[in-house]
């Protein structure tokens, strides 16, 4: 360890103020540690400023637009939509982000976390050099040293495609799609994972013609195949042109849009001309400028920082921990997973016993219309791991509240055969993001269907379908054989 005599010291230095970083800082401070948090932009990170929060605000607006159409066409409510006031929508979205940002800053200040603005790079396994923001005082660099450890929480950025550089207007990533000018009349979305599906859903609600292209043979390919099937059916019903098993051949920038050639799953070449092309082909961990080598660290071939001990998320260099998007699978790159990782690392640094993150019990949600939500193993994953399984699937329209919503969807439960442990729960339909927490507890606590079947679900609700699915697996179902 280098000489730290002239360095500012703290118990913990956190590099990056996103969900993983600020949760680490808050928990460490609550445990009595002296914490410095270094952030080169704004605390809250991608999730708060360019991802989870602003995108879900916009998806809520999209749900309101869809509700007007449903009111008129299905329920006889003589409602009409004059127009979407884009500046007003943006102002509301930004107000929500701003209030959340101020809340995070206030929490950090109240906890006694010292927030330092600037770009950090490692100078050793326990030392950091911070370059202040350009044009701001005080100028120059500041050296910091950590008595207990450094936490890397620098997040991720959208992946791009060679030869298709974003310009913020015609070609955009998921980060800058939120800030692109106005609402386009047509969009080609590349990538059928959660982010791509959400943006395809949003733009369709706002009246755009949408083509959704996914290279894998189905949408949300990491989810259960029945989830993909029901989601695809719902999106197609809304008029989205879903092209799974398809690839972008090339794209030409036009004055007011993009002309792209797509090879479909059938081997046909289609030309699609749109106002905007949205690239949603995944995210890459951000480590540039960190100088990991100065601390004796390196990334793997995919750019991730692999921990030596997943139970404490500590790297091969003792005292350097990692959370959030820098972690490789089984970490999921989800904000709520990074919260749990931050708590774990803070407790490890404080010497407090903690339970490792159970990634199998972390829920996964796609906030499109219809929504998807899942936790645990898919049917294929369970069988591949050698489980003999019982599977039960129930359509949401089998319960009255599902008929009221009229969007279709399903509940699917995967359990070990013979009333064994519940391995996975998979949902598609309206508002299922608000229903998955129960299933997280079921999977996380290794419950059996008979355990769940004892508990009464309220009527009439969508959650009845979850209860009935478990009743059937436990041999007590009323509406299924």
Detailed description of the structure:
The structure is a single chain. The chain has helices at residues 19-30, 45-49, 52-74, 86-111, 174-177, 194-205, 225-237, 335-350, 379-384, 400-405, 436-444, 449-453, 463-473, and strands spanning 8-15, 35-39, 114-117, 119-124, 127-131, 141-152, 156-158, 171-173, 186-190, 209-214, 241-244, 247-254, 257-263, 269-274, 276-279, 283-285, 320-322, 364-366, 371-376, 389-395, 410-416, 422-429. It has 481 residues and is an alpha/beta fold. Strands 1, 2, 3, 4, 5, 6 and 17 form a seven-stranded mixed sheet that branches. Helix 1 packs parallel to helix 8, helix 3 (52-74) packs across helix 4 (86-111) and helix 3 crosses helix 6 (194-205). It is globular.
SSE order and pairing:
Blueprint: E1 8-15, H1 19-30, E2 35-39, H2 45-49, H3 52-74, H4 86-111, E3 114-117, E4 119-124, E5 127-131, E6 141-152, E7 156-158, E8 171-173, H5 174-177, E9 186-190, H6 194-205, E10 209-214, H7 225-237, E11 241-244, E12 247-254, E13 257-263, E14 269-274, E15 276-279, E16 283-285, E17 320-322, H8 335-350, E18 364-366, E19 371-376, H9 379-384, E20 389-395, H10 400-405, E21 410-416, E22 422-429, H11 436-444, H12 449-453, H13 463-473
Parallel strand pairs: 1-2, 1-6, 2-3, 6-17, 8-15, 9-10, 9-15, 10-11
Antiparallel strand pairs: 4-5, 5-6, 7-16, 12-13, 13-14, 18-19, 19-22, 20-21, 21-22
Helix pairs in contact: 1-4, 1-8, 3-4, 3-6
């Amino acid at each position: 360890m280098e000489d730290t005599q002239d360095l500012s010291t703290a118990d913990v230095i956190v590099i990056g103020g996103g969900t993983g970083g600020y949760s680490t800082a808050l928990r460490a401070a609550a445990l009595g540690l002296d914490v410095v948090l270094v952030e080169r932009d704004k605390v809250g990170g991608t999730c708060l400023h360019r991802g989870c929060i602003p995108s879900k605000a916009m998806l809520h607006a999209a749900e309101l637009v869809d509700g007007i159409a449903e009111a008129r066409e299905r329920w006889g409510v003589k409602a009409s939509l004059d127009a979407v006031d884009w500046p007003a929508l943006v102002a509301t979205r930004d107000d929500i982000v701003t209030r959340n940002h101020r809340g995070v800053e206030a929490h950090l200040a109240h906890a006694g976390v010292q927030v330092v603005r600037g770009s950090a790079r490692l100078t050793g396994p326990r030392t950091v050099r911070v370059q202040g923001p350009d044009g701001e005082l005080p100028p120059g660099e500041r050296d910091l040293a950590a008595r207990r450890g450094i936490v890397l929480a620098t997040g991720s950025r959208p992946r791009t495609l060679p030869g298709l550089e974003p310009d913020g207007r015609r070609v955009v990533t998921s980060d800058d799609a939120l800030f692109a000018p106005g609402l386009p009349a047509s969009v080609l979305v590349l990538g059928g994972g959660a982010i791509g599906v959400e943006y395809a859903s949003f733009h369709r609600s706002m009246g755009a013609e949408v083509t959704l292209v996914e290279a894998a043979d189905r949408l949300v390919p990491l989810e259960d195949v029945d989830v993909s099937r029901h989601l695809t059916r719902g999106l197609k019903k809304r008029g989205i042109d879903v092209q799974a098993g398809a690839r972008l051949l090339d794209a030409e920038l036009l004055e007011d849009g993009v002309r792209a050639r797509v090879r479909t799953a059938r081997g046909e070449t289609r030309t699609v001309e749109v106002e905007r092309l949205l690239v949603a082909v995944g995210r890459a961990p951000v480590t540039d400028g960190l100088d990991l080598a100065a601390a004796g660290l390196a990334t793997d071939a995919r750019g991730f920082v692999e921990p030596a001990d997943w139970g404490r998320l500590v790297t091969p260099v003792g005292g350097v921990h990692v959370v959030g998007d820098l972690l490789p699978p089984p970490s999921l790159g989800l904000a709520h997973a990074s919260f749990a990782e931050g708590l774990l690392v803070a407790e490890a640094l404080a010497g407090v016993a903690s339970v490792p993150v159970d990634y199998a019990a972390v829920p996964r949600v796609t906030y499109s219309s219809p929504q998807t939500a899942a936790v645990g193993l898919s049917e294929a994953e369970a069988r591949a791991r050698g489980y003999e399984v019982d599977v039960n699937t129930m359509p949401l329209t089998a319960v009255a509240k599902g008929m009221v919503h009229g969007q279709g969807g399903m509940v699917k439960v995967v359990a070990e055969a013979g009333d064994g442990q519940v391995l996975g729960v998979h949902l598609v339909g309206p508002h299922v993001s608000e229903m998955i927490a129960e299933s997280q507890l079921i999977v996380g606590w290794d419950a059996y269907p008979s355990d769940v079947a004892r508990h009464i679900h309220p009527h009439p609700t969508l959650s009845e379908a979850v209860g009935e699915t478990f009743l059937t697996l436990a041999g007590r179902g009323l509406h299924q054989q």
